[in-house]
Amino acid sequence: MVTSITSFGRSGLYDWMIQRVSAVVLLAYTVFMIGYMLFGSELDYQQWKELFECTAMRIFTLLALLSMAAHAWIGMWSISTDYIKPTGIRFLFQSACGLLTFIYVVWGIQILWGV
Amino acid sequence: MLVSVYRYNPETDDAPYMQDIHIDIPGGKDIMVLDLLQLLKDKDPTMGYRRSCREGVCGSDGMNMNGLNGLACVTPLSEVVVNDKLVLRPLPGLPVIRDLVVDMSQFYAQYEKIKPFLINDTPAPAIERLQSPEERAELDGLYECILCACCSTACPSFWWNPDKFIGPSGLLQAYRFLADTRDTAKEERLADLDDPFSVFRCHGIMNCVNVCPKGLNPTKAIGKIRNMLLSQAT
């Protein structure tokens, strides 16, 4: 067993579950957005604003945003532990991924509640 | 036909190279790749490869034949030769000792990790620990593994992390003991596997299933281990 781990949940099963659940959330969000854009009535600013002012949509979007952050972190962590062998570069890469993910989440929340 | 063989002798060669050898198959028969290797060795006795039982039981002569891992002794030329050419390489991902002979230490270290023996702390019965035919049937498709390493060395996850990912062969064996009703260490075995590398580096690409010379299915066994972990944890 590999005991020292810096992945998401430190347990392989937990990471695996989070990745599956977040993938389902992202799929649902993508299908909803594509459906909304294809079959929603006129796509003007007012309608778009009303959509994102709705609390349910904010919850759904935040859920999708957090799902993407967790999904991306687990994926990028796996990729880096597969392909980047020098520890220094791997650590830098993982730190950059973590920082970017954090920025995107905060920025996303700001946009979402700025509507 | 043309045979291109990976050659490397660390005592005399600076780097590995491919040696092209033209050879006529006696009587144009559809011989096994191992027989072809013997013909090559008759021509050049310095050629190194492992072999023992020559009938797909011992698992010594695993190698990469035209890009696909398999046992040379049970692979007829007609199955692998393309355009009258055969490229023979050692099993990918493991350190080469010489020519087609690889160092299997990492592979065995992973096998050792999964504790490949029955653990049962209860007092031994007078005769033996019995299983019903149904319980015994659970082990079919698992116990037949001969540890030839064809599967693990066909797995990219094993190439990148041979020290952390157990690999398809080791995991098939791990499930063989998890599925055994006579074993009492199920929880400890599962706890030892629940990290992001040991089991979960398997992304289910099924290279292992594609190359297994015994027709076994490590991906299915890995899925069952995952389900066991899931039902234990949730």
Automatic annotation (TrEMBL), chain A:
Entry annotated with the keyword Metal-binding: yes
Annotated TM spans: 21-39, 59-79, 91-113
Cofactor: heme
Domain of life where this protein originates: Bacteria
Residues that bind a ubiquinone: 83
Pathway: Carbohydrate metabolism; tricarboxylic acid cycle
Binding site for heme: 71
SUPFAM superfamilies referenced in this protein's UniProt entry, alphabetically: Fumarate reductase respiratory complex transmembrane subunits (SSF81343)
Subcellular location: Cell inner membrane
Membrane topology (UniProt): Multi-pass membrane protein
Gene Ontology MF term list: electron transfer activity; heme binding; metal ion binding
Cofactor note as given: The heme is bound between the two transmembrane subunits.
Pfam families: Sdh_cyt (PF01127)
GO CC annotation, single: plasma membrane
Biological process per Gene Ontology, one example term: tricarboxylic acid cycle
UniProt keyword annotation of Phosphoprotein present: no
Keywords in alphabetical order: Cell inner membrane, Cell membrane, Electron transport, Heme, Iron, Membrane, Metal-binding, Transmembrane, Transmembrane helix, Transport, Tricarboxylic acid cycle
Function per UniProt: Membrane-anchoring subunit of succinate dehydrogenase (SDH).
PANTHER family, A to Z: SUCCINATE DEHYDROGENASE HYDROPHOBIC MEMBRANE ANCHOR SUBUNIT
Protein name, UniProt field: Succinate dehydrogenase hydrophobic membrane anchor subunit
Species: Amphritea japonica ATCC BAA-1530
UniProt lineage: Bacteria, Pseudomonadati, Pseudomonadota, Gammaproteobacteria, Oceanospirillales
Gene: sdhD
